[in-house]
From TrEMBL:
<feature type="domain" description="Thiamine-binding protein">
    <location>
        <begin position="3"/>
        <end position="95"/>
    </location>
</feature>
<dbReference type="InterPro" id="IPR029756">
    <property type="entry name" value="MTH1187/YkoF-like"/>
</dbReference>
<dbReference type="InterPro" id="IPR002767">
    <property type="entry name" value="Thiamine_BP"/>
</dbReference>
<dbReference type="Pfam" id="PF01910">
    <property type="entry name" value="Thiamine_BP"/>
</dbReference>
<comment type="similarity">
    <text>Belongs to the UPF0045 family.</text>
</comment>
<dbReference type="InterPro" id="IPR051614">
    <property type="entry name" value="UPF0045_domain"/>
</dbReference>
<protein>
    <submittedName>
        <fullName>Thiamine-binding protein</fullName>
    </submittedName>
</protein>
Length: 101
């Protein structure tokens, strides 16, 4: 499965409303998980089996919320049993169609 998720801590000590330090803590958890992943400006994608992916999402959410009063979490999942390596393969398929133009 591939999960795209975004954490948004609220009530942090940063006066300008920025949450980059808290988000970095979440991304660190994802990177240390060893699972295939990609981080963009608004979402982090991670690929693996249900239990291992959801465990990483939980730990990343906990890390982001360590110094926050609350955390918003958005999750989108592509659950496709029997398929692996789709984090890049899905993009490669789209790119191949674009090259055909």
């Amino acid at each position: 499965m591939i999960v795209a998720f975004s954490v948004s801590p609220a009530g942090t000590a940063e006066s300008d409303g920025g949450v980059s330090e808290a988000v970095a803590a979440a991304v660190r958890v994802v990177r240390e998980s060893g699972l295939p992943h990609r981080t963009g400006s608004m979402f982090t994608e991670i690929e693996g089996e249900w239990d291992e992916v959801m465990d990483v999402v939980k730990r990343a959410t906990d890390a982001a919320g360590e110094n926050a009063a609350r955390v918003g979490l958005v999750i989108k999942a592509d659950i496709r049993p029997g398929y692996t390596g789709q984090l890049d393969a899905k993009i490669d398929r789209v790119e191949s169609h674009l090259r055909d133009d």
